[in-house]
Amino acid sequence: xxxxxxxxxxxxxxxxxxxxxxxxxxxxxxxxxxxxxxxxxxxxxxxxxxxxxxxxxxxxxxxxxxxxxxxxxxxxxxxxxxxxxxxxxxxxxxxxxxxxxxxxxxxxxxxxxxxxxxxxxxxxxxxxxxxxxxxxxxxxxxxxxxxxxxxxxxxxxxxxxxxxxxxxxxxxxxxxxxxxxxxxxxxxxxxxxxxxxxxxxxxxxxxxxxxxxxxxxxxxxxxxxxxxxxxxxxxxxxxxxxxxxxxxxxxxxxxxxxxxxxxxxxxxxxxxx
Length: 273
What we know:
With 273 residues, the chain is α/β, with parallel strands linked by helices. It folds into three domains: 2-61, no CATH class; 69-187, HAD superfamily/HAD-like (Rossmann fold), CATH 3.40.50; 190-255. 47% of the residues lie in helices and 15% in strands. It contains ten helices and ten strands. The chain has a three-stranded antiparallel β-sheet with strand order 1-2-3. Strand 9 (262-263) and strand 10 form a beta hairpin. Helix 8 (184-218) runs antiparallel to helix 10 (232-251). The longest helix has 35 residues, at 184-218. The radius of gyration is 29 Å and the shape is elongated. The chain starts with a strand and ends with a strand. Keywords: Membrane, Translocase, Transmembrane, Transmembrane helix. It is found in: Membrane. Its main location: membrane. It holds the Pfam family Hydrolase. One of its GO terms (molecular function) is ATP binding.
């Protein structure tokens, strides 16, 4: 005999019929946020030579939602960052899970195959950037995933973020790898990235101002007016000081501390973690 195992849609493509009782059971599972897996078996010894699949079993599989997921998503939304879900699950199942973690139902893209995930990411990039009048202000799309199916989307995103406990394919396709499976690391990554960029800009501005002021003095610009000039030894020390100050400024990043998460829940006091 031949057996096929997969989603409800996949089984229906093999012309396996679902009775009303089973259909209601599958819909009930989906409304609980569970993924549906159906097993159909075909007896190859049909008299007319046709292959007809019959449902043999149905399973409901569910992943436990990470306890910190709701707080992390709420933190990003509070910062004005849109959150989306891209899933290969049934749309009803994906919508239920999205509602559990606070993702709007209109931001759920479900029922997509692995190669379609990258296409959806590209559509989000094009759609977001089309709303911006200037390239400098375009929206950056970040993708978080941990499975083999997420690898194409991780490569297509502006920033691909893989969970350290995920598959090797996903890790090799990502721009960043979170060593911790705790989703709060996403907040640390975003905050640390902004801190590093600010430090780079500060160092550049400081070095530029320093050299604009110091180089003319070292070249003797004040000599005609005051008959004074900077000794070459002091000029060399001043140049070394410029480099050392930038290095010291960069080393201050070692004092970085991860931000505390403060989420305001309706009817409750704000919580910090």
